[in-house]
Amino acid sequence: MTKIKVVIVDDSALIRSVMTEIVNSQPDMEVVGVAPDPLVARDLIKRTNPDVLTLDVEMPKMDGLDFLEKLMRLRPMPVLMVSSLTERGSEITMRALELGAVDFVTKPKISIQSGMREYTELIADKIRATARARVKARTLQTAAAGAPTQLPQLRSPLTSSEKLIIIGASTGGTEAIREFLMQMPSDCPGILIAQHMPEGFTTSFARRLDSLCKISVVESAGNERVLPGHAYIAPGHSHLLLTRSGANYMTKIEQSEPVNRHRPSVDVLFRSAAQAAGKNAVGVILTGMGKDGAQGMLEMKNAGAYNFAQDEASCVVFGMPREAIAIGASHEVAPLTALPGLVLDHLATHGGRALRV
Fold first, then answer.
1. Which of 1, 71, 113, 183 has its CA 20 to 30 A from that of 303?
2. What are φ and ψ of residue 160, in 5° steps?
């Protein structure tokens, strides 16, 4: 078995040591080099040709973001960011994902050594997913996303506010969601989103999207009326559910147990949409590792919803869409760039009297 070669870049000797211990404890991966800063890392990368680079977001001598930007431009490779659980750390991490990093893990706030060891399974899973990521394809998509194509607008206002768009994603999902939402017109149906992300990071994610999109994007606080032209992102500490109160759709957040090891879970959101919205929902499952969302999307389909899955070629990690497709949960499979138009076309055709012009 060929092992995944990992280079660890972190200014903390403790983090380098713990990460090395975690990686080398796995039978399918090994550390081939460690570096205290990007300058040393540059030579290590040339010498060892790693499959995955783990990179601290805040580094001495050269800023981690500057290094990442140069790396993804000159030698694109799978990068897993290691971030601090702070507001600054979350904002830097969001920028790193925009620059092409595949995913990130967070450092514990206290007891770093024991805390990181508790993350062993998660870190190993993320390294495996990062090693499989389609970095080059993603880099091209990210570059092209700077000038989004303009889709025809839904006629304003929508004559039916019953329709909803329900989105689930994981690894690679922050950029996929950004590309999708940037194409949504200001009068699109309400959108609910579950993206696997820790507490605090969803706040920065929502704020960033709100600054880029025509629609309003917020981190859900729960008990909100779901409105057209608004997107509600599951907070990193809770599941997001869709409920109904009279004629209105409402958001609900709850801190029940993780599902498929995740909270927020895509399955939880999709199942609630199946129960509360049925045929009025359109489901979209995007890039991500694992199988979270597949069963929930099948329940949406069985309840009358129409579902889309991102295709393998445009996914960073074709895990969650593959699982949904395999069990027959999706009606259509398409590249990320085509999904916004297909969703709007479906809504125009089946969304009551809402029309594209």
1. 183
2. -125, 120
